[in-house]
Amino acid sequence: xxxxxxxxxxxxxxxxxxxxxxxxxxxxxxxxxxxxxxxxxxxxxxxxxxxxxxxxxxxxxxxxxxxxxxxxxxxxxxxxxxxxxxxxxxxxxxxxxxxxxxxxxxxxxxxxxxxxxxxxxxxxxxxxxxxxxxxxxxxxxxxxxxxxxxxxxxxxxxxxxxxxxxxxxxxxxxxxxxxxxxxxxxxxxxxxxxxxxxxxxxxxxxxxxxxxxxxxxxxxxxxxxxxxxxxxxxxxxxxxxxxxxxxxxxxxxxxxxxxxxxxxxxxxxxxxxxxxxxxxxxxxxxxxxxxxxxxxxxxxxxxxxxxxxxxxxxxxxxxxxxxxxxxxxxxxxxxxxxxxxxxxxxxxxxxxxxxxxxxxxxxxxxxxxxxxxxxxxxxxxxxx
Length: 384
Ligand code: ACO
Fold this sequence. Notes:
- By secondary structure, this protein is an all-alpha fold.
- Helices cover 56% and strands 3% of the residues.
- The chain has a 3-stranded antiparallel β-sheet.
- A hairpin with a 2-residue loop joins strand 2 (29-32) and strand 3.
- The mean pLDDT is 95.
- Residues 9, 221-223, 225, 255-262, 305, 308, 310, 313-315 line the site of acetyl coenzyme *A.
């Protein structure tokens, strides 16, 4: 076996072979099954794109209609799942609520038949259908309200906005939200997808796979960054304060949220599309001071850090769009999860097709053959 050099964070180390998506971080290219993200954002829908990611090609009209119908039919939650969610602390983070609820699906749908295509399809449909309902349900429950039932006359994105706000969704808002889901659906072997694949490789159930990925996405260096971007823009407060804020961050060597990416060394193509979507929303619903701050921030960061390849990533503009859509800040990452379920499931299915359990190695840096010290002879506890 070849002995590999250790790379912190596995940077540049291939963890799998995949034909689901492709990123060129130097040229700013992202493709799903070979189709550029710009094409999909303009011409496709989230569910159609999801079908493409999971089954490898765009569905024909009948296939798409059947898929959409199945998802519509499975959106509701069992009353026991809703009751379980009512017991969650209302101050808990919605990502924790989502992780627990996704894992709980394994209790309610415990059959496991990973070599049965019908089982795979049922799990895919169930997860895609129920995760948005879970996110919306927790939002209403923590406000002291009963969750609303999904509406069969609404599309995937519009129905989610409806379940969250209990109001008729605006058509432009629903379309823009659908595009946001498409943009976040898949992104090669990022931390949460890797987590999903490691879990999948043990041949556990798909609900455990998605729950582990949700837990990984929650961290501030991954999906959690979009929340922190809004906190940062709030702290900056005005365009004039952008440069002093940035200088202070750089002096303290703290990371600027929404900037930088392990793979992209130019502006993330999804950030460009999201910025355009934000502008469309501002045109219809009024411009936002945060957007002016964001533009000034992008310019200032480019001047100071562009030479290091630090540009806006997907999280920089997604928060602005979600905020304008009326989505509460701490639901930004759960909304990211709603979209990324598509990619996680695509990788789950790909992993199962040629599975080998993940079991990397390590470089041991500890000691050897140390004699056991009886407890009475160990060092004393230091008291301040
Ligand atoms: N602000 C300031 N400097 C940065 C930033 C940033 N956001 N990101 C990277 N750098 C600098 C680092 O300080 C480092 O500089 P140095 O070489 O002089 O020490 C260099 O760029 C490389 O940075 P690393 O942290 O080694 O890059 P890595 O690939 O490990 O991290 C990451 C990528 C985690 C995304 C990082 O850029 C970051 O923390 N960004 C902010 C958080 C964020 O927006 N996360 C969302 C990412 S997108 C997603 O997950 C959906």
